[in-house]
């Protein structure tokens, strides 16, 4: 029996939701029995995957996604190889549309087919969700938008998005008059 | 003479001798290596320093007791901030980052001895009395 525990990021910013979505997608795909733990008594607000037995702990979402993929039934250490798209996605997750200037997603070649078992696609879908999840964004290439819609149409992904929203504490941005 | 920023920029993990390679790391170790390499790229140095210091409380290197490229990337990312912390001489700041300072001193005198000239190294004062750490 697994002794892993997963705690959600309770920060108020969009990046906290992105972090929760990354790990929720990864646990849905690679470790379906792993759910966000009850954190009502937890003092910390940060994301965490911890092994109660060994004390092994990760706090960075991309590393958690890769770890869950590598330790899944058909997993391999290859998921830890660096992907040039990852740094760009991290900037988008942190800065939102401000990080889109000059990015040509087509050169990264992840949009040809939606694959929910792909680590980089899980990271891309989560990082782009605040920009593409609710509306179209003309700053992002059409091929990416088509891929995003196809990836998100999977019922497991829809459910994971709902779970990530339910555990996140996003602050509403005040509307400007 | 090169600035420390230029010296750090030129350090490539592939040219550092003594690092453990990926094929000799477990899934847990590879995940930790990935974690510290990603966090080292983050713009939020304060959070990175906090997390790294906390982790180094019970480990020698970023990945347990094995020196990896994550140590090199983290060293490059945090060295200048750590220098400012040490030079400030503020005991509470130093106490708060004591494990990072110990780790930097280890790296600059072993794995990165050839890459970081003696004149650019962190001047750690071992006679500073730090308050006992509350765990």
Protein described:
By secondary structure, chain A is mainly alpha-helical. Chain A is built from six helices and three strands; from the N terminus they run βαββααααα. Chain A has a three-stranded antiparallel beta sheet with strand order 1-2-3. In chain A, α3 runs parallel beside α4. The termini of chain A are far apart. Chain B is mainly alpha-helical and about 140 residues long. Chain B has one domain: Glutathione S-transferase Yfyf (Class Pi), Chain A, domain 2 (Up-down Bundle), CATH 1.20.1050. Chain B is about 55% helix and about 0% strand. The radius of gyration of chain B is 14 Å and the shape is globular. At the A-B interface, α2 and α3 of A face α2 of B.
Query: Which structural category fits the helices and strands of chain A?
Result: mainly alpha
* Tally of alpha and pi helices of chain A: 6
Outline the low-pLDDT stretches of chain B. none
The percentage helix of chain B is 40-55%
CATH topology of chain B: Glutathione S-transferase Yfyf (Class Pi), Chain A, domain 2
Strand content of chain A: 5-15%
Q: How many strands, what sense, and barrel or not for the largest sheet of chain B?
A: none
Which stretches of chain A are low in confidence, meaning pLDDT under 50 for 5 or more residues running? none
Main sheet attributes: strand count, strand direction, barrel closure of chain A: 3 strands, antiparallel
**Strand runs of chain A, count:** 3
CATH class of chain B: Mainly Alpha
Question: Helical amount among residues of chain A, as a percent range?
Answer: 40-55%
Radius of gyration of chain A: 16 Å
**Which whole number gives the mean pLDDT of chain B?**
92
Got a strand count of chain B? 0
CATH class of chain A: Mainly Alpha
Oligomeric state of shown chains: heterodimer
Q: Which strand order do you get reading across the main beta sheet of chain A? A: 1-2-3
Question: N-to-C terminal Cα separation of chain B, in Å?
Answer: 43 Å
The overall pLDDT of chain A, averaged over residues, is: 91
